[in-house]
Amino acid sequence: MRSRSDITALKTLVISGGHTLSLVSGDVEDRVTFQLERLVSEGLATRDSPKSGQGTTYRITALGKKVLQEFEDNQKG
Predict the structure, then answer these.
(1) Which end of the chain is more exposed for a tag (fewer CB within 10 A), N or C?
(2) CA distances from 2 to 19, 42, 55, 56 (A)
């Protein structure tokens, strides 16, 4: 079973169509980056290389969508 933070991060990627992190680092962004990097390492998200002057963009993968759908199906009972 996935953690609540995994599910929240995956839902955020679906809703936003991807999430770009700014170049400014802080506690919250560091935690979000750690979470998203973990999803990338598990194949649930991808990371686009940052362009000059922009942050890194993360997107949900087909596997991430499948995991999210399975979670939502299990919640329905």
Answers:
(1) C
(2) 20, 12, 27, 24
Contact residues for 29 (Cβ-Cβ < 8 A; gap 6+): 21, 22
Strands 19-20 and 57-60: antiparallel
Q: Which residues of the chain have pLDDT under 70?
A: 22-24, 53, 77
Place of tokens 């680092």: 25
**pTM (two decimals):** 0.80
How far apart CA 2 and CA 29 sit, in angstroms, is 21
Give the containing element (helix H, strand E) for 47.
strand 45-48
Determine contact, residues 56/49, Cβ cutoff 8 Å: yes
Residue 18 carries which side chain, given as an amino acid letter? G
